[in-house]
Amino acid sequence: MKYVVVSGGVVSGLGKGVTASSIGLILKSCGFRVTAIKIDPYLNIDAGTMSPIEHGEVYVLDDGGEVDLDLGNYERFMDIKLTRENNITTGKVYKHVLEKERKGDYLGKTVQVVPHITDAIQDWIERAARIPVDGQSGPADVCVIELGGTIGDIESMPFIEALGQFSYRVGSENFCLIHVSLVPVLNVKTKPTQHSVRDLRGLGLSPNILACRSTKPLEDNVKAKLSQFCHVPMENVVTLYDCPNIWHIPLLLKEQKAHEAILRVLNLKGVAKEPALEDWSLMAKMSDKLHVPVRIAVVGKYTELLDSYLSIDKALLHASVARRKKLVIDWISASDLEQGAKKENPDAYKAVWKLLKGADGILVPGGFGNRGVEGKILAARYARENRVPYLGICLGMQLAVIEYARTVLGLPDANSTELDPNTKNPCVVFMPEGSKTHMGGTMRLGSRRTYFQAKDSKSAKLYGNRGFVDERHRHRYEVNPAMVPRFESSGLTFPGKDETGQRMEIVELPNHPFYVGAQFHPEYKSRPGKPSPLFLGLIGAASGELDSLMQQSCQESVVSRPQSNGKLERVYWKGAAKKPVSVVYSLCDRVYS
């Protein structure tokens, strides 16, 4: 196993996650199987109980792991399925060591940070790196490890010490350290990076490659200075300058031969292929050239930090690029849509309603708590009554049901027991298997199966008329099954249900151009070139192309088979006869056809 570690210096938020994802992608394009690990030095067991405003979105994996959003970047770029073991936190490591201490595994010894915590970290890395994440058996060839935080942070110290020891455990030919650092645009100063590398070396780690974040490409004299003072070969100093979109970052790495530097350190040059990024390059450049806009209003609670909805953002982008549309997102704070805002902040109230009414489509994402709920309900009502394409996700689905109950069924006090425990018309109720005393890891989490009840629904057609679909979940509340017959008799349908038939997974309004809600989170499985069907449906409806999109989706069932030349063979089952037709094509032939 080869290991590539990505660390960061000077300031946080430099893009270590995108850099690590890009390195994984380019190594995969060289013919290697890749996996990834994110190290988060915080004491939380996982990201599940963190505020999105403070830490960004909580990303959910197939196995139910609630993890850092960077694992979403890894999955999207490398097209892999990670596990909760691939996210290491200080809380997990200390919990593991303390449980061993209580069992007596360290009997007679003083349990210390070194060696017990550092050994546990190294063991965890090796164990997680061996987990297959690409659908094949056996471990990957290369594991990309991102060390969260910034060099010098006190909470990172045990991990830095562990990685220093780990480099000796696995050997220098199996360990490559890439340090991402800032080179400020002001006179292109190199001192911050020099000091960051000095601090890193003082902690026992010496970078093999420098990835310098800047607003523009670095001149050769600047690279030479960094090479001299940081003890890194000049050809191993690469610039990650500002780009139109992050899909260009792997291309920057390839252009500057960063992959060759990595392969030299890991002694892999003799077995690596030339990176095949033609399709990725075409996708990145095509995204820059799109000019026909599609405007989507995202009505959320956490819009002050857009990383709170990172997967939503990316899923909309994947779908809009696939439909050859330039995505324009209007981020609307749900609270500003409410009547209270009309009095307290009339300018904001007027501005957000103007945005909502100018949108081609409306999306209400998941969330928790009361703040902004009435604004989201108003958005759902506006979309339903004005026939604007609408996609509600998790809470967004539940609120669409509540709005329907209040307005169409004539139940003005209809609500969720999460928001009003004493409501007389509980449209959304607490799931019986949930916990009301413990918050972390107690929701209905991870990949669950949804069975389609009818093939004539829009969602079933978008999913290719399959009998079922597996999507990721994160919720404690569900549509009240006791009220479903009343909803259905009034025209609201539930074409997707769980295996029991009692848990509502998808809601639709058949006589609406596109009014769909999903209890699951389809954004978590959207990929560049493989957009989520429901997001495709929203973009298709918002751009007036839904009918042709559904016809295409329901006529084609597709299986992908990787080819040795880096392309894909897709077998289509076309038409009513479902005759197989094999086609070998490049990714973008499918995306942009």
Automatic annotation (TrEMBL):
<dbReference type="GO" id="GO:0005524">
    <property type="term" value="F:ATP binding"/>
</dbReference>
<dbReference type="InterPro" id="IPR027417">
    <property type="entry name" value="P-loop_NTPase"/>
</dbReference>
<comment type="pathway">
    <text>Pyrimidine metabolism; CTP biosynthesis via de novo pathway; CTP from UDP: step 2/2.</text>
</comment>
<feature type="domain" description="CTP synthase N-terminal">
    <location>
        <begin position="2"/>
        <end position="268"/>
    </location>
</feature>
<dbReference type="GO" id="GO:0042802">
    <property type="term" value="F:identical protein binding"/>
</dbReference>
<protein>
    <recommendedName>
        <fullName>CTP synthase</fullName>
        <ecNumber>6.3.4.2</ecNumber>
    </recommendedName>
</protein>
<dbReference type="GO" id="GO:0019856">
    <property type="term" value="P:pyrimidine nucleobase biosynthetic process"/>
</dbReference>
<dbReference type="InterPro" id="IPR017926">
    <property type="entry name" value="GATASE"/>
</dbReference>
<comment type="function">
    <text>Catalyzes the ATP-dependent amination of UTP to CTP with either L-glutamine or ammonia as the source of nitrogen.</text>
</comment>
<keyword id="KW-0436">Ligase</keyword>
<dbReference type="Pfam" id="PF00117">
    <property type="entry name" value="GATase"/>
</dbReference>
<keyword id="KW-0315">Glutamine amidotransferase</keyword>
<dbReference type="InterPro" id="IPR017456">
    <property type="entry name" value="CTP_synthase_N"/>
</dbReference>
<keyword id="KW-0665">Pyrimidine biosynthesis</keyword>
<feature type="domain" description="Glutamine amidotransferase">
    <location>
        <begin position="305"/>
        <end position="539"/>
    </location>
</feature>
<keyword id="KW-0067">ATP-binding</keyword>
<dbReference type="GO" id="GO:0003883">
    <property type="term" value="F:CTP synthase activity"/>
</dbReference>
<dbReference type="InterPro" id="IPR004468">
    <property type="entry name" value="CTP_synthase"/>
</dbReference>
<dbReference type="InterPro" id="IPR029062">
    <property type="entry name" value="Class_I_gatase-like"/>
</dbReference>
<keyword id="KW-0547">Nucleotide-binding</keyword>
<dbReference type="Pfam" id="PF06418">
    <property type="entry name" value="CTP_synth_N"/>
</dbReference>
<comment type="similarity">
    <text>Belongs to the CTP synthase family.</text>
</comment>
<dbReference type="InterPro" id="IPR033828">
    <property type="entry name" value="GATase1_CTP_Synthase"/>
</dbReference>
<dbReference type="GO" id="GO:0044210">
    <property type="term" value="P:'de novo' CTP biosynthetic process"/>
</dbReference>
